[in-house]
Amino acid sequence: MSTQNEAHGDEDWKDAGEPTARHLELALENIVECILDHGGYPAQGRRQFDLYDFLSENRDPSYAMEMYVAAMSSNTRAFETRIERERKTVEAMLIDHLEGSKWVEDLADEYAAEDE
């Protein structure tokens, strides 16, 4: 029987290198940012997650056409609010989809190992 956490004030003790909630939060933020900035994860090398495929499966194609029209417009400033709103929507979709994923856990493990 282990006495590791028995009434010693170390109830929050974690194994060395085990990620904390903050590591997981940072990992999720960084992966979502990478996907939005580079169209996939990881930014370089073989893609494990592709934004195009994700949006094709999870978003109405009319949104893509609307963004294409915005990109082709000579007055892109008129579309700034719409583009930002769509980006926030996709960001929320990615967070919901990726939270608790193996990619997030693996990156959080790397962050925890760096903190040792």
What can you see in these coordinates?
The protein is mostly helical. It is 61% helix and 3% strand. It contains five helices and two strands; from the N terminus they run αββαααα. A two-stranded antiparallel ribbon has the order 1-2. A hairpin with a 7-residue loop joins strand 1 and strand 2.
Structural key phrases:
elongated; mainly alpha; 61% helix; two-stranded antiparallel ribbon; 116 residues; disordered N terminus
Distance between the termini: 27 Å
Instruction: Bin the strand percentage.
Output: under 5%
Low-confidence stretches: 1-13
Structural class: mainly alpha
Average residue-wise pLDDT: 86
**Share of residues in helices:** 55-70%
Strand-and-helix sequence, N→C? Answer: HEEHHHH
Count of individual beta strands: 2
The rounded Rg comes to: 20 Å
Sheet with most strands: strand arrangement:
1-2
How many distinct domains?
1
The count of helical stretches stands at 5
Give the CA-based shape.
elongated
Biggest beta sheet summary: 2 strands, antiparallel
Question: What topology emerges from the helices and strands here?
Answer:
Elements: H1 21-38, E1 40-41, E2 49-50, H2 51-58, H3 61-72, H4 80-98, H5 102-115
Antiparallel strand pairs: 1-2
